[in-house]
């Protein structure tokens, strides 16, 4: 216990780093996945390519990706940007399919009505299709959030500090307490991300709450 | 006016959905496209607002070739109603209705006021404005769909089986309201249905298409019923067309018989004394509007609303021969109830009187038309 109390400020700062390294890629990934998912819906031939292609990205081992990233984007090895970019790639890998499926779940009659009323393609995407895809996309985002919180910890091995650093630290010194604190903090963090996404989704989809139990 | 100028549509897989369609939908009238499934009704309709581009031919709205117009702009001037309503589930009823006004850049207040006005127009309470579509019944959603199509007051409306997903009673109601609305608004409407009865009821003119999108006949409903051009149209128009044709003939003035009437609350003795040997007595309300028939012999105590026989239909003095005949046939007393325009009881007719009237109308029509010209 005394270790935790002594190192509280350090742990808090590690949590902050963790939020940044797992959260920012979530937003960036979403921004990239939306146009890709839209393309996958719009052009039938692209769908299998984009879905399989992005799906494959997720299978690259994270450690390898963290290590190789500087070679691709010319950053320094310890630069946290490496982690942000790598995590963004994982987020995109998880979300492209979700976005495509979410857009695909918009009823045909709704899309037709929108077109018939004179919505252009872009306007229709932002005013009709995306809002209706929010519940599906949000479900995917929750998976990505939990996955990010967990994967980011690996970055401790290449020396980018966040909660994962507590694991390497504890392991080196054969000392359980930091490891335990790290695990608990990770779980709580994942929970907070999840709740935040749920709350945000509820806020922007008031129409979902009125659904009659059909 | 909407004019199809030898319009064809062949889909990439080689299906000819519409083949050389020549047709005009006159301004301010309802033109119904009817025909068997897959005959190209929806395709024809969607070519008007260019959701589908014709393979060849042109479509004119008044004197503008639609292909020369910007598609989105064209569509904002054309109301569109479809079977599943297609309301936006994430927007309130008012926001749904205000969609096109907002696209056209109206200010928020004005668009909302318009939405509320239209809600009333289509027979919904304004308290529905802030509900979401999932909180409405199918028939109510369809009404909102119509209101949404009318929002920016487009001169042209396209309707693709708008009433076919609701139950028959609601459908009938929606059709009546639609006709009333059209009476006020006078839009140029192209209406698609596969239901010939709906076509006959709603259309100022009805276009029957055959598979392959070929026009078989276009005519006013009465003409279609009376003079189908070939077996296909005759089959499609269906049985009972002679009887249904009566629905387009105004009833002539017939001599109406008077009735002894009773009121709710009258005693059985009063009723029997007034009726004499007549087994049925007509019950009317304070305004002399007919309520139903009561069996004179069986009534006990006082005449109450429970003992009323309400199965009979009521014809209006300015109704059709069909209304009149039906009133006679559906009446338990065999005497059809006829009311004045204000709904007050005017008298009764017997079925044979109506049949005689039909006979003489037909004889007069045959005499007026030289022999041999009956085919067209
Ligand atoms: N996108 C498409 N590709 C190929 N063929 C099509 C396409 N859309 C429609 N068709 C075909 O074109 C023909 C006409 O279709 P359309 O939808 O216009 O018929 P409809 O008269 O509206 O039928 P229904 O009463 O069943 O709605 C049908 O044979 C249909 O299979
Ligand atoms: Mg159709």
From TrEMBL, chain A:
Cellular compartments annotated: Cell membrane; Membrane
Keywords: Membrane, Transmembrane, Transmembrane helix, Transport
Pfam families: BPD_transp_1 (PF00528)
Listed PANTHER family: GLYCINE BETAINE/L-PROLINE TRANSPORT SYSTEM PERMEASE PROTEIN PROW, OSMOPROTECTANT IMPORT PERMEASE PROTEIN OSMW
Topology of this chain in the membrane: Multi-pass membrane protein
Segments forming a coiled coil: none
Gene Ontology CC terms: plasma membrane
Domain ABC transmembrane type-1: 15-199
Top-level division of the source organism's lineage: Bacteria
Organism of provenance: Nocardioides luteus
GO BP annotations, alphabetical order: glycine betaine transport; transmembrane transport
Protein name: ABC transporter permease
TM region positions: 20-39, 46-71, 77-96, 132-159, 179-204
UniProt KW Heme keyword: no
Signal peptide segment: none
Family membership noted in the UniProt record: Belongs to the binding-protein-dependent transport system permease family.
TrEMBL record, chain B:
SUPFAM superfamilies documented for this protein: CBS-domain pair (SSF54631), P-loop containing nucleoside triphosphate hydrolases (SSF52540)
InterPro entries for this protein: AAA+_ATPase (IPR003593), ABC_transporter-like_ATP-bd (IPR003439), ABC_transporter-like_CS (IPR017871), CBS_dom_sf (IPR046342), P-loop_NTPase (IPR027417)
Domain (ABC transporter): residue spans on this chain: 2-237
Keyword line: ATP-binding, Nucleotide-binding, Transport
Pfam family, one: ABC_tran
Key word Transport present: yes
Class of this enzyme: translocase
Enzyme Commission number, as recorded: 7.6.2.9
Entry's Gene Ontology molecular function annotations: ABC-type quaternary ammonium compound transporting activity; ATP binding; ATP hydrolysis activity
Family: Belongs to the ABC transporter superfamily.
Name assigned to this protein: ABC-type quaternary amine transporter
């Amino acid at each position: 216990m005394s270790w935790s109390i002594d190192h509280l400020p350090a742990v808090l700062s590690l949590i902050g780093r963790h939020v940044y390294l797992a959260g920012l890629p979530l937003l960036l990934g979403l921004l990239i996945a939306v146009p890709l998912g839209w393309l996958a819906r719009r052009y039938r031939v692209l769908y299998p390519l984009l879905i399989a292609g992005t799906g494959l990205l997720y299978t690259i081992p994270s450690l390898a990706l963290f290590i190789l990233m500087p070679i691709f984007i010319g950053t320094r090895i310890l630069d946290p940007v490496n982690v942000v970019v790598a995590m963004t790639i994982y987020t995109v890998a998880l979300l492209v399919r979700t976005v495509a499926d979410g857009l695909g779940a918009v009823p045909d009659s709704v899309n037709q009505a929108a077109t018939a009323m004179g919505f252009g393609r872009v306007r229709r995407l932002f005013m009709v299709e995306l809002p209706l895809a929010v519940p599906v996309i949000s479900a995917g985002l929750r998976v990505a959030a939990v996955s990010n919180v967990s994967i980011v910890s690996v970055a401790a091995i290449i020396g980018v500090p966040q909660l994962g650093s507590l694991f390497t630290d504890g392991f080196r010194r054969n000392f359980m307490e930091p490891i335990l604190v790290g695990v608990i903090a990770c779980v709580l963090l994942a929970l907070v991300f999840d709740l935040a996404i749920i709350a945000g989704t509820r806020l922007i989809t008031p129409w979902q709450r009125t659904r009659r139990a059909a | 006016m909407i004019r199809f100028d030898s319009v064809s549509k062949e889909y990439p897989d080689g299906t000819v959905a519409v083949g050389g369609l020549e047709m005009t939908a006159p301004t301010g009238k309802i033109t119904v496209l009817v025909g068997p499934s897959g005959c190209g009704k929806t395709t024809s309709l969607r070519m008007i607002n260019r959701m589908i581009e014709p393979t060849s031919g042109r479509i004119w709205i008044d004197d503008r070739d639609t292909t020369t117009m910007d598609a989105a702009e064209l569509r904002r001037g054309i109301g569109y109603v479809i079977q599943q309503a297609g309301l936006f589930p994430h927007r309130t009823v008012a926001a749904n209705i205000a969609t096109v006004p907002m696209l056209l850049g109206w200010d928020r207040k004005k668009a909302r006021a318009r939405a509320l006005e239209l809600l009333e127009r289509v027979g919904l309470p304004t308290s529905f404005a802030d509900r979401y579509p999932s909180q409405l019944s199918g028939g109510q959603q369809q009404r909102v769909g119509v209101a949404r199509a009318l929002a920016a007051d487009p001169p042209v409306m396209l309707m693709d089986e708008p009433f076919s997903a609701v139950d028959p009673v609601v459908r009938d109601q929606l059709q009546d309201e639609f006709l009333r609305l059209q009476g006020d608004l006078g839009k140029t409407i192209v209406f698609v249905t596969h239901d010939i009865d709906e076509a006959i009821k709603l259309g100022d003119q009805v276009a029957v298409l055959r598979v392959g999108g070929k026009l078989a006949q276009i005519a006013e409903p009465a003409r279609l019923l009376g003079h189908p051009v070939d077996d296909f149209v005759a089959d499609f128009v269906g049985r009972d067309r002679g009887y249904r044709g009566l629905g387009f003939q105004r009833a002539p003035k017939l001599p109406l018989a008077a009735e002894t009437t009773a009121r709710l609350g009258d005693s059985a003795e009063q009723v029997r004394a007034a009726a004499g040997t007549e087994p049925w007595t007509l019950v009317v309300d304070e305004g002399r509007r007919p309520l139903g028939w009561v069996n004179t012999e069986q009534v006990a105590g006082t005449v109450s609303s429970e003992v009323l026989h309400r199965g009979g239909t009521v014809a209006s003095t300015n109704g059709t021969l069909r209304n009149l005949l039906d009133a006679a046939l559906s009446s338990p007393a065999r005497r059809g109830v006829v009311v004045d325009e204000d709904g007050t009881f005017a008298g009764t007719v017997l079925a044979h009187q109506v049949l005689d009237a039909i006979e003489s109308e037909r004889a007069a029509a045959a005499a007026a038309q030289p022999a041999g010209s009956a085919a067209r």
